[in-house]
Design brief:
Main location: membrane
Radius of gyration: 19 Å
Family: Belongs to the YfgM family.
Protein name: Ancillary SecYEG translocon subunit
Helix content: over 70%
Membrane topology: Single-pass type II membrane protein
Number of helices: 11
Strand content: under 5%
Structural class: mainly alpha
Order of helices and strands: HHHHHHHHHHH
Number of strands: 0
Largest sheet: none
Shape: elongated
Subcellular location: Cell membrane
Length: 227
């Protein structure tokens, strides 16, 4: 099912009167995170493609496409085996691309710990483009919203949540979600407000942040600070 941002926000807003933040998170949390992950993948896609295209090497490309085909056919174990082989012996940029795809497949299989470890490791690999590293760190952070602590999420992406960083919108988003899930609504408000106040925030990110700000305000658990 496609993620329709506007209709989703309208549906969540209907829950505001119930004043049950935990209930809303249980019902909508996965959709909120899923929509945010799509933004991260879209932002990195073009740069990732250029990185791949600029480093293609004959048979390596054929092997990688074959592994992707297995994944598309839901032959997950076979795809992971093929990607592992590319990680070990592939030319050029294919090993890191294989690691990224393998981590995604691990997350889809439910092995989030392995996926987080893989994305986090890629995020620390200094010999690949910054945009690829940062996208991997964000993927690790979004998985950690469900399985880790706020501090673990912050360790991955807090340094991206600064005004000059291209990924600041997604970094603030995942930090806000992690704080919200942890019950730290004051901190969640700070991150979501930073998104709303940034005129360059993408519309769908800003809309979701405003929705969650409204939800927090309706709960009365993190009053708006008076200047």
């Amino acid at each position: 099912m496609a993620f329709n941002d506007d209709s989703f926000i309208r549906e969540v807003n209907e829950e505001l009167r119930s004043d049950q933040l935990r209930f809303v998170w249980r019902r909508f949390g996965r959709l909120i995170i899923g929509g945010a992950v799509l933004i991260v993948l879209g932002t990195a896609a073009y740069s990732g493609y250029r990185y791949w295209a600029g480093n293609q090497a004959g048979s390596g490309g054929d092997q990688f496409i074959a592994a992707l085909t297995l994944a598309d056919q839901n032959k997950t174990d076979e795809a992971l085996a093929a990607l592992t082989a590319i990680e070990k012996n592939g030319p050029g940029s294919y090993p890191v691309l294989a690691r990224l795809r393998a981590a995604t497949l691990q997350a889809q299989k439910g092995d989030k710990a392995a996926a987080i470890a893989a994305f986090s490791a890629i995020g620390k690999q200094t010999d690949i483009p910054v945009v690829v590293r940062d996208a991997a760190r964000l993927r690790a952070a979004y998985l950690l919203v469900d399985t880790g602590t706020y501090d673990q999420v912050a360790a991955e992406v807090q340094e991206l949540a600064v005004p000059a960083d291209a990924f600041r919108h997604s970094a603030r988003d995942v930090l806000g979600l992690a704080a919200y899930k942890a019950g730290d609504f004051a901190k969640a408000r700070q991150w979501f407000q930073a998104i709303v106040d940034d005129p360059q925030s993408p519309r769908n990110v800003a809309n979701r942040a405003q929705m969650l700000l409204d939800l927090i305000t309706a709960s009365g658990k993190a009053p708006v600070a008076k200047g």
